[in-house]
Amino acid sequence: xxxxxxxxxxxxxxxxxxxxxxxxxxxxxxxxxxxxxxxxxxxxxxxxxxxxxxxxxxxxxxxxxxxxxxxxxxxxxxxxxxxxxxxxxxxxxxxxxxxxxxxxxxxxxxxxxxxxxxxxxxxxxxxxxxxxxxxxxxxxxxxxxxxxxxxxxxxxxxxxxxxxxxxxxxxxxxxxxxxxxxxxxxxxxxxxxxxxxxxxxxxxxxxxxxxxxxxxxxxxxxxxxxxxxxxxxxxxxxxxxxxxxxxxxxxxxxxxxxxxxxxxxxxxxxxxxxxxxxxxxxxxxxxxxxxxxxxxxxxxxxxxxxxxxxxxxxxxxxxxxxxx
Length: 324
Hints:
This protein is α+β, with helices and mostly antiparallel strands. The chain has twelve helices and six strands.
């Protein structure tokens, strides 16, 4: 027993002498810029968004840093005001939002160079995308409502949202999707309201035909993904456009990979439409929901400008907004 006590005391002494992890300075600048940017634009992008809690967990090579969390777990060490750290547990390339430590949902994200964002300004707007998931997840009963779709088939981990066996490889469905995709792009690329109307009508008709090819569960799954992930990408675009005249802090503008918000705002919408033009079900699979759903959000802006007011009253479907 005495030997065990000595070992434990030595271990505590070593832990106490271990330097606390330090948040890299460039990461500190980016995180600060996210909270500053969100405070300025979020309610203009989506009404009431600013009431949503915004805990964020940054995953670096060796450590994870948690901020804006109401109750940091015990395995985190406080290293600064509202900043906590622990050894890394999540993958460095992760881009996700989920109740990692119980409610509220946490943005869990790697550094730009380790994620699909690649650089600082796109990374900020990916964080805005994930912050919108916090708004979605924060609605009372949202997780029960998702489970009540009956798509989990026994999966209690939530991975059904990624792994649901949607018939991406069905050739008839794939051909119908390409036709639908092209009609959507044609409507969105038409600025003239008089010419837009018949193009939108053709899309509405084709969309109904496409969804009619799906089984009831497949329809629910695709609708769910377009409502959730597609609209989060839409919000990413709208956030970029809302930030076109945003003035970053000098520290952020001095980052080596800095890209102006004005330049990124010009590209965000076109990048998603270009991505949609390349998509097909068989090769892109679930990834199609991001550009497809975001583009439907842009379409709904023109068909029903006040649609955001009822978005959370009509869970997991955009159907009622995409109609004549």
